[in-house]
Amino acid sequence: MLATLSATRVQGLEQRFALCFEGRLAEEIRAAHAPLEMLAAVRVSRPWTVLRARRRLAAVLDDARPDVVICHSSWTHGLLAGVARKRGIPLVFWLHDAVTGQTWADRFAKRVRPDFAVCTSEFARGTLHRLWSGVASDVVHPPVPQPDGAGVDRRLMRAQVDTPADDVVILQASRMEPWKGHRLLVEALARLRDVGGWTAWIAGGAQRAHEEAHLAETYALAQQLGIAPRIRFLGQRDDVPALMASADVLCQPNLGPEPFGIAFVEGMHAGLPVIATAIGGAREIVSAECGLLVPPEDPAPLADALLLLIRDPALRAGLGAAGPARARALCHPQRQAEKLRDVLEAVVHGAGAERERLKPPQRLR
Asked: Which residue, of 21, 185, 199, 365, has the greatest Cβ tally within 10 A?
């Protein structure tokens, strides 16, 4: 999301970025030719690394003299926001996730009250009070560019993953986290074992030990339920747009809420009807015009929704056709960057007016 924002040019919005760690995000920001400052690798268990990063940020702020500083996580805000606050720079917290207020990072963040909060969704916004009460806020959806699926040979892609050319392909493309609902999808598909003409693709590699265990358990469940031959476990993929262009339905039946749900927007961009559970950000994204919402943690209604789309190509086409417009309305990068600019301008002007109000009166001579 930050990489997309860094590549979006909007009149009146000049962006500079500061990171503590090298990695993919730093590479993507550099590729977008956006100004990037590297602070210092921080380990909370090593206080001197925090002090070093704060000193570096102080130097960056003194040099750049920004109108506003945005922190994008409780961790960043808790450790570094005070540097901006001491300089009187308007401070914004961007809430990308639903927060509990109970983690150590949240507790650190609570110590520095921002002037404003930008929230990734109304769902996330509903948790902001767990950090601070009464902080003004607005929702700016993540900018999601249309993925490049043009020119994909659907038949070739399907052949490469051993899928009949005419099958209805149900795709889930997500991290291999239990709360993403892989097991629920398998349980729902098992109810359709006697229905012909479908294949499921599960894309997403296991990165950590608990994800490896979840993947193994999901595959074992598919074997136990007798549908393993109809599910392709594709592992980590760097061609998800091509997978979406070659699929027919995007299904991600979360057990836990997404703070937003970029995968749903990407699926709609690709012209896929979306099936999701009616929790979290999905409720703001998936409308009746472009997808189906089902109750969480229940394979029966999920199976019914899948069967409906498997058997009704006209419904699939209609829901899919409405997806791109919905995706643009929610997450067009230019529009979201313009909204961010407008929000930040209001914050800066409001902070300036407040500083004027708090100035001590001049003594009369």
From this structure: 185
